[in-house]
Structures are given as structure tokens and as C-alpha cells.
Amino acid sequence: MRAHKLSQILLSDEMLRTVEPYNIKGGWDINNGETKTFKETMKRKLFDNQNGRCAYCDLPLETRNPEIDHIAPKGGDKLPKHVECTYLPLNLVYACHNCNSSSCKGSKDTVVNKVSTNYSTWIFSIVHPYLDDPVEYFYQNRSGILCPIPKKEADEYHRKKALRTIKMFGLDTEGKLNEIGKQLIAEQQPDLVRKMIESISTYKPNTE
């Protein structure tokens, strides 16, 4: 839940033109060399742009089997959805496997209304990682960290959109909250965590 700058992930026009012919059926053609190159390039750019964190839950990607996610789902050959933005950088983020799984976002349609052919004018049901400012939707604590709680001052539109995002990615579930909490402690109190680990690893029970 942090704003990402699109300018850092834009690919060259040449690469976009290269993959455009494969943007017809809506699926990634894994047997096509240009598509493979596109995906690998996007993974690197997205990882750097997102500071190595999931675009949705903000947890580190390295240990969470990251995947490229289409914010507006592309669908597949049999059930195509928003195929026109299969290769659109503005529609791509790097997400952890959990957030991108069928139990969370999966292939759920996040598009409410295609206002025009201009993607940036589309209306989404969730907080968009590029088009929306998460500060307008989520509670921010004294340390400036955004929490999976709707902003108290938010109007009804922003509050409902925040709630849908929280629900879709399970940001209010015990498992995800525990992960987020442990990560925050590890980042904000590294010395405390190190001492705890040292204490546990050197502990010798009294067997006498």
C-alpha cells in the first residue's frame, strides 16, 4: 500500500511495439522469445520500482514467490477480459504469490467502468497502485506507515474502495496481519529482533 511512480517502469516504445502483435488473445505466449524478454525486463523494473515489495500487501517479494499481476485482468484464450492492456506497463505490478492467488485477487475483475480508451480514466473497484494515492484511502500512523484500515476522514467512496482492497487481499486476516506486524517490528526494531534471536539461539535449558 504505497504509491508507485510509473515513470520508473516505462519500457521503451521499441519493446512495446515488439510485443504488440502478441497482445491479441490475451494470454502470455510463453513460447515467444519477445514475450519472455518483456516479462523478465518487467520483473526487474517492477522489483526496483516497488523497492522489492508486493504492490498490494507491501511485504518483501524475495521470499514470497513473486508474480507479475495484471491489475485489470487479461483473462485467457477462452475467457478473455481486458486484453488490450496485457502488455501495458500501467496495468502491471509485481505481487507476492498470496496476493495474486485465486484466494485473493486471482483473475477477479477490478474494472468497474471503462470511461474511455484511455486506461488512466478507467474506474477500478480497488485502490490502484499507480492511479490512486493510498494516503487518501488508508490510515497512516505516527511513523508515516500506512495500515490496512480505512482512513477515518475518508468519504464514503474512498472508504468503500479501501475496504474492498483490504478484503480482496486479506489484509485484515490473522495470517496477513501477523506477517505485516512481524515485518514492521523487524524493520523498526532491528536491534531488538537481533537480541531476541541471539537470546533464543544461545539459550540452554537447566537440566539439573
Give your account of this protein's structure.
The structure is a single chain. This protein has helices at 13-19, 33-49, 156-168, 174-188, 190-202, and strands at 67-70, 92-95, 111-113, 123-124, 138-140, 146-150. With 208 residues, it is of the alpha+beta class. Strands 1-2 form a two-stranded antiparallel sheet. The longest helix has 17 residues, at 33-49. The radius of gyration is 20 Å and the shape is globular.
Quick description:
By secondary structure, the protein is of the alpha+beta class. The protein is 31% helix and 10% strand. A two-stranded antiparallel sheet has the order 1-2.
Task: Describe how the helices and strands are arranged.
Elements: H1 13-19, H2 33-49, E1 67-70, E2 92-95, E3 111-113, E4 123-124, E5 138-140, E6 146-150, H3 156-168, H4 174-188, H5 190-202
Antiparallel strand pairs: 1-2, 3-4, 5-6
